Amino acid sequence: MTLTNFLYLLFNFISLFYQINGFSMKLFPIDSPHLQILPKHFTAKDRQQLLANISLSRAYYAQKRNPTLAPESIKSNLSHVQLNYLVTQLSFGEQASPLTPYVIIDTFTDLTWIQCADCDPCFPLKDKFEVETIPNFARMSKDDTRCVPLTSFNGSCGFEATYQNGHTEGYLGKLPFIFPNAKDLPEYYPNIAFGCGVHNKDITFNPNPNQDNQIAGVMGFRPGPKSFINQLEQTIKNRFSFCIPTAHGNDTIITFGDDAQISGDDERKVQTISFKPNNRYHVYLAAIVVDGARLHIDPNVFKLDDVNYKTGFFIDPSSPATVLSESAYSLLRGALVGYFKKYGWDPIEKPSTFDLCYSNDIQGGQAYPSMAFNFIKSPGDVGEIQLVLNPENLFANIGSEPGFCLQMLPSNGPSIFGAFQQANHRFLFDVKTGLLSFVPERC
């Protein structure tokens, strides 16, 4: 018996003894001190600008359109850097010496891939991942049910993906992956499909050109044949849960399987709505309420366009800030400007970061407005489920200067409910049933 087979049997025995029902992974915001990805000279404004750009690019690239025609505002600020808000670390290969690349989380794709050592051309990367030298590695056949869409690469199952101005293509392989369970013991999962990007043109995951890039690729969180959510269905039962802290840069955990739980109490009620998992976690938004007043937003802007994705409302922790269609954002902005006008405040003209900023601070007797997003419980249901946002989910300081900015942005694409607005709420996704539960929680 080989060492690999012995370890596999041992870990399965331990799993049965402890009745382990899932596993967890760490999530790191792109500005996490753990990662140290952002340049050291980044100011608070620089950081806000980068997070705003990531949010806008998420809304733009959610649509089916030519990515080379991206607005100049995104091109000039992000260039060919591909960044999302959340990063995790994979572990695969041999238990004794696994490969552990960092990857960004992407809820718009089911594809997980990294740059492999046999790449040409390559993007700058701190580590080389020689995947083909790992025992039990095998390239995936085009006959494999996970080879969807059917793409060929040198006779094997292939893939390709476009990001911003860049492009990657390569082959799909199969390897054993390792995930820590609730007891923090390593769980061994053989035969997991993932991609090796070998032709990587104009792609980088590093906004700091003076630092070695440690992000090697992408982990797809959209359900689909290649997604870990589908491949590990028997173990995790298509369930995962997370809670994002309010403070920027704080790490958190995403939990899968039966260990992904949610609970509330008399004051913190767990609420549940429907979502469409195969359409990038689309949810049914009915209204936005500001200071108790319902905004008269055209409901069609939140209706799913499942052909070109130019409209719809998506839950996306990969986006830092919420992005609303221009017509919806205009009404929201107008309501907030009217609210702060009672204090004699006027917004900053042409702010350099988010769209709506003030140079004032809340003083005694003043307060931020209340805001809530009202969701339809399920299609055809007349009842609404309300997610109430606290000021910490809505506004952030400009930096060392007095004032604050609304952590939302307008876009000519679909609407996205981002990580800032999800913060300090626990979310539980049950992909099989298409149900999303949430409850306030200090993360």
From TrEMBL:
UniProt GO BP: proteolysis
Cellular component, GO, one term: extracellular region
One Pfam family it belongs to: TAXi_C
Key words, A-Z: Hydrolase, Protease
MF terms (GO), sorted A to Z: peptidase activity
Residue ranges of domain Peptidase A1 in the record: 86-439
Taxonomic superkingdom: Eukaryota
Similarity remark: Belongs to the peptidase A1 family.
The name this protein goes by in its record: Peptidase A1 domain-containing protein
